[in-house]
């Protein structure tokens, strides 16, 4: 999959920008504050319906502007074309697919982007939410019924939480929602575990190339409640405790997964660089697993490559992506040496983007 044309209006410093990236490597070069991350952020927004920068929702809209739009023409490897758009006016986000209004989830399913950026080590170092998002993005693109299931789970969770907050004590009011949570939780857990099993094969391959010094790797899933009871039984037993907390404290919405190595069993054993390389391995594995299922690679964005990895690891990563024939959008204050020969270069300056000929 690749983006053939990208237009952005009023996203941060990008006032009105149109870019036509090449099918392979593209490097966006510019000084600090020029707008490079914002450009990649636009592509990520189309594919995730949110930014990769934490807490960025309100800051996305250019100061003084009332609306922002992002539009892309996507070409699938089989030649199919899609026009996707995402806009925000006031507080409202609206997605468009081939000229028609569409739910954001449909946009997300049409546009697949995997991104590595200065925040990516959070996948390893930060809280569970980041890892659940990563996992669910992957499952969503492999199991197309996952979103429905997840929505059913969220609806039942909301209902149970309302009962808890209202201080309801009648078990009969909880039972239907707890049964629904139990059903959906089992299926969510099966899919997530299955996804991690498939991911492990590829993570193992990338880890052996990127951090061979850490030995073999394992991925462990924690389902969000104890193994010895079903979720329904757990919730029934936890009602009074949950009432005190005002929300449901166990379930797949509290799940997590961890990466552990033979020579670094805890994440605290990893250096910052090893955390980043582990995140790269997971992201590459996710991109390749997507490719196995979808028959094509997602678009890969790498923000600030040179500041994230040393030259040897940069060259290794670029080599892997070149072999995959994925479309790559890389940003940096300079062009990495390993890319000088075959990348299309763009210059980014004060929110303007132009190809470097
Ligand atoms: N809502 C906004 N409205 C206008 N300008 C904004 C807004 N949010 C951020 N900016 C500005 O947009 C510019 C581009 O930021 P961006 O993070 O894309 O730069 P960058 O090229 O990635 O820089 P760096 O090399 O430092 O990472 C910055 O100067 C920033 O101050
Ligand atoms: Mg940046």
TrEMBL record:
Q: Where in the cell is it found?
A: Cytoplasm
| Assigned keywords, A-Z | ATP-binding, Cytoplasm, DNA damage, DNA repair, DNA replication, DNA-binding, Nucleotide-binding, SOS response
RecF/RecN/SMC N-terminal domain sequence ranges: 3-331
Q: What is its main location?
A: cytoplasm
Family classification: Belongs to the RecF family.
Q: What does this protein do?
A: The RecF protein is involved in DNA metabolism; it is required for DNA replication and normal SOS inducibility. RecF binds preferentially to single-stranded, linear DNA. It also seems to bind ATP.
What is the official name of this protein in its record? DNA replication and repair protein RecF
Source species of the chain: Dyella ginsengisoli
